[in-house]
Design brief:
The chain is built from 6 helices and 9 strands; from the N terminus they run ααβαβααββββββαβ. The protein is an alpha+beta fold. The protein has a 4-stranded antiparallel β-sheet, with no helix packed on it.
Length: 219
């Protein structure tokens, strides 16, 4: 993926989060998990179960771009709604859609690798991803207090999907839980994405691939 596209997408995310709160809340996340999610004062079930405070991040979610006449939109099918777009950020929509389309193409190239690693035909997963779900999460992580062990930018969790791609980021903060219970910082490699396995991959492969627990701490 061209570094210029990654840079433009980071810039687009920064522009979105720099907007006044009222503008962001006008696009508040809906039942399709599309839109803006502010930092909450209430801990999620996941955070509460771990005895932690609410995750300290705000996020803007986009899914596959659809039109009002899309049959799934007309039928109000869950998680198949229209994206909520800001109306006064020139170039934002075009940049994020280009990024999502490029990432989708990359994921389609990665899926055969999982199949072949399982001694299956390279196209084994193709039917599952004929029109795959895709979610772009544009997050902002305020700096947290390192002395407070109950607070995290994003509490430890596993992702629900098949795979998650995280673009190269010079700012540290992502860490991964090893099977032995030790946390390690995710290595930062210039020009390389972190590819994280999720719960669907874990289940579909009968634990041949694991769903990777991870967290974010911006200190």
């Amino acid at each position: 993926m061209p570094q210029s596209l990654i840079d433009r997408t980071y810039e687009a995310a920064a522009r979105f989060h720099a907007q006044p709160m009222a503008k962001k809340l006008a696009l508040k996340v809906n039942e399709h998990n599309i839109g803006y999610l502010p930092i909450s004062d209430a801990a999620s079930q996941q955070a509460a179960a771990q005895g932690r405070k609410p995750s300290q991040n705000e996020a803007y979610f986009l899914r596959r771009e659809r039109t009002p006449d899309d049959p799934a939109v007309v039928a109000s099918r869950r998680f198949h709604g229209l994206n909520q777009w800001p109306d006064d950020l020139p170039g934002f929509r075009a940049t994020t859609l280009e990024y999502m389309q490029t990432l989708e193409a990359l994921c389609r190239r990665l899926a055969p690798l999982y199949a072949m690693a399982l001694d299956l035909p390279a196209d084994f997963f193709d039917a599952c991803f004929a029109v795959p779900h895709m979610i772009l999460r544009m997050s902002r992580y305020p700096v947290i207090d390192d002395a407070d062990g109950t607070v995290a930018s994003l509490v430890p969790h596993t992702d629900s999907g098949f795979m998650t791609l995280l673009p190269p980021n010079p700012v540290p903060g992502l860490s991964i839980l090893l099977p032995n219970g030790r946390w390690i910082d995710a290595p930062g490699v210039d020009g390389a994405f972190v590819v994280n396995g999720g719960d669907i991959l874990h289940r579909w492969t009968n634990e041949r691939f694991l769903s990777t627990p991870h967290r974010v701490r911006n200190l």
